[in-house]
Hints:
39% helix
Amino acid sequence: MLPALTPLRRARVLRVTAVLAVVLGLLAWWLVPDGRPEPRGRVVFSTGVPTGVYQRYGELLKEALARDLPEVSVDLRDSEGSQQNLARVAAGQADFTVATADAVAAYLRDRRPGADRLRGCARLYDDYVQLVVPRDSPVRSARDLRSKRVGVGQDGSGVRLLANRLLSGAGLDTAEDLTPVSAGIDTMPGLLERGELDAFFWSGGLPTAAVQELSARFPVRLVPLEEGLIGRLHETGSPHYRSAVIPGDAYPQAQRGEPVPTVAVANLLVTIEDADAALTEAFTRTVIGSRDRIGGKVHSAQLVDLRTAIYTDPLPLHEGARRYYHSVKP
């Protein structure tokens, strides 16, 4: 039998135990932020076409995540765009993605598979619609696309959804009044340059590298989209569009300093309801925290704003993202 501790020894043991507990607690705090295990594992991020803003944004975000979450491996997957991205996340084929708010609303409205499981993490930057034509083209408005060969984006892209709606707002039927060409931003500039397209639609952050590079080697211009189109888009039950202006210096060779009226729509960072809350919180933190670093290479990322990022309508906010916003609330 061990000898009983005297009151003095008992007090010393208690003090030593208390000190050890404090030391171990501080060590755990230092090693594991907020006392929670560091997220680990593998995630799939569905991006976009190789030369689009989604893809470049994903590449730079992957670098930021490697610094902030060294135990998390991020795989990037090319896609046709917003509609395919949402289908992948809803089906569990991707963990995170970027999609336009109008594409999300359409996915929810049509009750596509897994729609009720989608959740928002952040409102990111806006996409701007860009209707690109050769500089000497007679096309001066969307209405002038009648009988023309028009690039309308790939089947699974947000561009296709938006192009169809804009053409309808201009009084044109995509299938009957023009020749729609299913192609992405990785191929449409070359088709226009070779005379195989008369025009193409693109929706992306400013500037989009593929459009910028095209304008540097081939004379093109941007066609204004009249403000009345917004009202007609809203009448079709699409409230996520707004009037916008492409600044005159977005594409200097194409615009020659002239601003171009257009339509804009927000991009959302999307995940699924049962995504790990700690991982989603950390992922959202990196997205917001890396804004300036990524924005140095992808200009549109500079527009990510903590004050508006929490508004992920039409999707409810994921619990992990909600934790992040509460942690940084003033």
